[in-house]
Amino acid sequence: MISNASDMPFGPGSVAERMHDIREAARVVSEGFSRAYMRECIDQHRFPQEIWETLGEYGLLGISIPEDLGGSGGGQVELVALMEALAEAGLVLPMLLLTGFARVPIIRHGTPEQIERFVKPTISGTEKLCFAITEPDAGTNSFAMSSLATREGDGYRLTGRKVFISGAADADRMLVVARTQKVGEVGRRTEGMSLFVVDTDAPGVQLQPLNIDVGWPERQYLVFFDEVRLDADRLIGLPGQGLAGMFEALNSERLLVTAMSVGLGNYALKKAVAYANERKPFGVPIGGYQALQHRLAEAKAELEAARLMMIQAAATFDAGGNAGAHANMAKLLGSRAAVKAVEAALQTHGGYGFDRDYDIITLWPSVRLMEIAPINNEMLLNYIGEHVLGLPKSY
After folding, report:
1. Single pTM value for the model
2. Residue 324 and residue 224 in one domain
């Protein structure tokens, strides 16, 4: 049995205790859904509605929403614990990640009426959220986005395109980052950005599936906004001042991606250890060979390091501190560690690792994606170099 070395007590009411409670609840839920069920959803690109509804029934979709708003309380600590535990059971649920971080700016900057309308329905799971920021031309340089929400009467008119929008067809609404001032009209490129809640079936919204398979139930989409009419109450916060909410959402996203990475990495290691203890081509288990054992041990050590960084960043996020640096570091370490774990599991299984029935190669697209999305690791290194180490801007 592989344990999480960082599941250690830090005192009454500690982060570890908070995570333990959620992991136990996730364990109960995951026992009712097999990896075969998840594989079927992934292969058919069918949303896992059954497990989604079960998570809602257990109150787990309300994690990170204050109890006075109808949620289950807690914060990012509990949310990453849930994401990690489900992934560790082989249950890949990007919609949990998407809904979880997309509602952060609404909770923090929205009006009570907006929270009632856009957040509360996600607690039971009757509505889902996705997030739309990346554009075909701008790519990683989100400040260069061209999607524009123009003031019209008492509302806005949205035009533009977004790409790699996960789960757009499964979500009921998307949190869209758009400019309310063109980049050439502002003194600083960080100005003039706003957040809007857009219904995925609104007139003028068109979803085009991309021919991408990353081992998720949800597809990726190119989204077109053709003169989409938005009432004023679809704007979250003040016009042109959406930067803080955007980064709050993105920091949450990095932590949840880390949780998925660590969970899937540990899932792969569990399968590798079980196989290494049983496989005896020369009469003894191959797990006793140092060349193989060390590779698995290194992957485990790196997963644990990423997990601790994730927990630290999540606790800082919940305390209202600046979690940016540690969230970026956690995503960097977690994605790398997950790839290392799956590669170690592949090597352990030899040729069988490439047989989809052994369920190792099936993990590869998802963990490898994490080194590229939601932001590539090279940009994370740029951030650390510039904002943590104080080096000159490198790009």
Report:
1. 0.94
2. no
